[in-house]
Amino acid sequence: MAQLPIKYKDVLILYYYKQMSLKEISTINGLKMNTVKSRLVRGRKLLKRELVERGIYDE
After folding, report:
1. What is d(CA 48, CA 13) in angstroms, rounded to the nearest whole number?
2. Cα angle at 19 between 22 and 41, to 5 degrees?
3. Buried b vs exposed e over 13-44: b needs ≥16 C-beta within 10 Å?
4. Is 20 left (phi over 0), alpha (psi -120 to 50) or beta?
5. pLDDT value at position 11?
6. Model confidence over 28-42: pLDDT tens digits?
7. Is pLDDT above 90 for 20?
8. Disulfide: which of 19, 24, 35, 54 matches 31 by Cβ 3.0-4.6 Å?
9. 2: which DSSP letter?
10. Taking a C-beta distance cutoff of 8 angstroms, is the pair 1, 12 a contact?
11. Burial (CB count <10 Å: 0-12, 13-18, 19+), residue 8
12. What is the C-alpha to C-alpha distance for residues 8 and 4, in angstroms, rounded to an integer?
C-alpha cells in the first residue's frame, strides 16, 4: 500500500481503517462524492495489481 499515490492511499485508509463513510471522506478532504468513489475504486485496483505482482494475492 505504501507504493500507491497518496490521493488513493488516503481514501483507502479513511474508508477501511478509520471506517469513515464516503460522505465523511468527501467533507474532510473537500472533494465531491463521485471523486471519492472514483479514487476508492481506482485505489482498490492499484492495490490488487500490486498484490498480484508480488504474489500475495491470486486472481
Report:
1. 15
2. 50
3. ebbeeeebebeebbeeeebeeeebeebbebbe
4. beta
5. 97
6. 999 999 999 999 999
7. yes
8. 35
9. T
10. yes
11. buried
12. 7
DSSP conformation class of 18: S
How many residues does this entry show for the chain? 59
The predicted structure's pLDDT at residue 59: 72
Burial class (CB in 10 A: 0-12, 13-18, 19+), 11: buried
Beta carbons of 12 and 4 less than 8 angstroms apart: yes
Matching residue, cell 462524492 = 33
For the segment 41-48, the average pLDDT, to the nearest whole number, is 96
